[in-house]
Amino acid sequence: MAAKKRRKIPHLLSHTRPPVTSQKPSLSSQATRSLIRKHHNLQKQLHSAVSNRDAIAIESIQAQLVASGGLQRYQEASIQGQSAERGGDTSKVLVEWMDELLPLRNRHAFGKLKLLEVGALKVDNACSRSGIFDVTRIDLQSQHPEIQTQDFMEMPILPSESRKEYGFDIVSLSLVVNYVGDAVGRGEMLKRVASLLRFSGPLDQENGTRASILPALFLVLPAPCVINSRYFDEERLEVIMTFLGYVKSKRKVSKKLVYYFWRYEGVRAGREENSLFKKQEVRSGGQRNNFTIILQ
User: Fold this and answer.
1) What is each CA distance from 253 to 37, 228, 256, in whole angstroms?
2) Are 236 and 276 in contact (CB under 8 A)?
3) pTM metric for this prediction
4) Strand pairing category for 170-174 and 148-149
5) pLDDT tens readout for residues 271-285
6) In angstroms, how far is the first alpha carbon of the chain from the final one?
7) Residue 226: which residues within 8 A CB-CB, separation 6 or more?
8) Phi and psi dihedrals of 20, rounded to 5?
9) CA–CA separation, 251 vs 97, rounded Å?
10) Distance CA 245, CA 249 (A)
């Protein structure tokens, strides 16, 4: 009797990305939200199946992802959600904040700011049109020649002595952290940002100057992640970001999203681990989601 062939188990979540499918007609707003939500849920299930090395579950979930249109259909839905007529371009908030935090008269002295846009889907959004930024755009599967196909977690870490010259002034993680399938992976993503920022140590910070607001992280999350999670809230987010060396400069909450501008000041000496980094219930009730971020 012939030996059974073992199923090959993917070791990386990126290896389980569904294939690109052919383009389909435009979606309604409700269908767009439904598709994005379904894709996120399937990605979470897929990550769990990969972690458990469950080949049968992996195959089943991948088939569901393909049936729902794959990564390309998810990206199309995300692009439609970002369209001007639907008011979904989150980078508009970043541009508004830069106008407030760093007036035009002060920007002329050092030229455009280097911005890394992670999970970029469009090349004509507000930050691209503003004239403020020199934008580097990356995504797991590029849909445009000006967007590099690159996994953020696999970008080379800059040596500390090179960051001042080659680092970014701002890293944008807009609706990216919530896409990561597990809480530890989200923490690892936040930890990695500092290694790509243009930072040479704490500086004397006079208001309205580059050093008073940069380098920084522009972070956007779905509002339910912080206002309706069983395990996560804004207090926990602030504790985590403070531990990682950030200070909150700006915050905005809308019906659907929360926006933050975190200035990086460097990790403080003598910091201690905090129990808030672990998964702990902060809200009770049956209508909660399970989103959280864990640092290890």
Assistant:
1) 20, 13, 8
2) yes
3) 0.73
4) unpaired
5) 666 655 788 899 988
6) 47
7) 232, 233, 234, 237, 258
8) -70, 140
9) 10
10) 13
